[in-house]
Amino acid sequence: MKKLIFLFAFCIVVTNVFAQTDPEQLKKEGNDAFNAKNYPVAYAKFSEYLKQTNNQDSATAYYCGIAADAVKKYPEAVSLFDIAIQKKFNIGNAYARKALALDAQKKTAEYVATLEEGLKVDPKNTTMVKNYSLHYLKAGLAAQKAGKAEEAEDCFKKVIPLDHKQYKTNALYSLGVLCYNDGANILKKAAPLANSDADKYAAEKEKADGRFKEALDYLEEAAKISPENENVKKMLPQVKAVMK
């Protein structure tokens, strides 16, 4: 009886040894599944391959991250794109995809931080430029709607350094409108002082004029970038008129 038990245990050991799949075979099967857009299988094969090879293959980590994202394994996708980033494989797109995986988890602060970090490495990456710009344009409009003018102004200014005609124009236009409205509100509040306190009124008017000048500068810059923009063309004469 003891002999039979020993033989049975030996068979299990031998079976387990031969059951371990060759890493290169796993990689091949993962590539085949990925190319066929069978992302669940691709993720499983790539993950096992990376596990057996100690995450040394940055390209496979990157594509495994795409597969993980496709099957909504977002935390895993972030970790896999981090491997690609650390090893500098397709680094701009790795940052872009990592950011999207964070956004899918509603980790907004990490999402924005990843975009900022990624844009330092690849400032012309179209996905990151788009997502970073849209984030701050939307945040700026929301802050403006909530009456948080300073926060809105800071958001719009984040977009200006980026190399994108449409988003840059939108940010400059939004800043022009914001500065114009601020100047108009300063004048409106100061109006009762015109007859009662001339010096204080003059000081407030100077503040308003400063904001109007800022508005004009932003709008003129927007006009240089996008001379065809109808919103900019309509707003410019309005600002110039109030400065006369």
UniProtKB/TrEMBL annotation:
InterPro entries (alphabetical): TPR-like_helical_dom_sf (IPR011990), TPR_rpt (IPR019734), Ycf3/AcsC/BcsC/TPR_MFPF (IPR051685)
Keyword Ribosomal protein: no
Domain of life of the source: Bacteria
SMART domains, per database record: TPR (SM00028)
Signal peptide feature range: 1-19
Gene3D superfamilies reported for this sequence: Tetratricopeptide repeat domain (1.25.40.10)
Keyword set, alphabetical order: Repeat, Signal, TPR repeat
Keyword Glycosyltransferase: no
Protein name: Tetratricopeptide repeat protein
Source organism of the structure: Bacteroides vicugnae
Taxonomic path: Bacteria, Pseudomonadati, Bacteroidota, Bacteroidia, Bacteroidales
